[in-house]
Write a structure and sequence with these properties.
about 220 residues, six-stranded mixed β-sheet, disordered N terminus, 6 helices, alpha+beta, five-stranded antiparallel β-sheet, single chain, 11 strands
Length: about 220
């Protein structure tokens, strides 16, 4: 028996890379929103992610998932894809770095995942919990990016790009977005360029989206 279609097509990134010609990076574009979740004691407990994929990738990854052929993709029809994609994120460090009081935090397995499809774009939502609640201290720093720059993340342009849930009174958020590569930089971002990189070089950090939460 062949595996479910969602399993055979991709574990989040690989199928797009295999299907794509040798083009410059990135291959996938994601518009991101994040909510930093606090406990009643004022500690950070997790991040609620919402990632909306570009139309081309959305169309590719959802091929054949409209099981009842009604022309609409429901969360139920996308749930298996959401499960596979979310579980695979551990291999990419969840594309997320969180530091509390300057200390990098470890994440537990994502939960409460699901996908929706609207206006030609798929959105993946999931809660990324911390292994242990972290004191906010003087500041909490969140970064969202792909170290390999295979995926280009950009925070939503709205005021709700990064929000706080149950945060202590007086906490304030400052958001910074990366500048996209200019034409001359883009010409250099060939497959050969990225094949020569090592994981330690963390090239994608130069295109990280950042949010700093300062609490009194």
């Amino acid at each position: 028996m062949s595996p479910p279609l969602s399993l055979s097509r991709f574990v989040f990134l690989a199928a797009t890379l295999a299907a794509a010609p040798a083009l410059a990076h990135p291959h996938v574009w994601v518009t991101a929103k994040a909510e930093i979740v606090f406990s009643s004691e004022g500690k950070v407990t997790g991040i609620q992610h919402a990632w909306t994929f570009d139309p081309a990738y959305s169309a590719y990854v959802t091929q054949g998932l409209d099981r009842n052929n009604d022309g609409a993709l429901t969360p139920d029809e996308l749930q298996e894809l959401a499960k596979v994609n979310t579980e695979s994120l551990v291999d990419y460090g969840y594309f997320t770095v969180l530091k509390a009081g300057g200390a990098k935090q470890a994440f537990d397995a994502p939960r409460d995942y699901g996908m929706s499809f609207d206006k030609g774009q798929a959105t993946l939502k999931f809660l990324l919990p911390l292994k242990a609640p972290a004191s906010a201290g003087k500041a909490v720093a969140l970064e969202i990016y792909d170290p390999t720059y295979f995926v280009a993340f950009s925070l939503d342009e709205g005021a709700d790009a990064v929000t706080l849930a149950n945060a202590p009174q007086g906490c304030a958020t400052t958001v910074s977005r990366p500048k996209p590569p200019d034409a001359s930089q883009q010409q250099k971002l060939s497959e050969a360029f990225f094949e020569a990189l090592t994981a330690a070089q963390n090239f994608g950090a130069g295109f990280a989206n950042r949010a700093i939460v300062a609490c009194p």
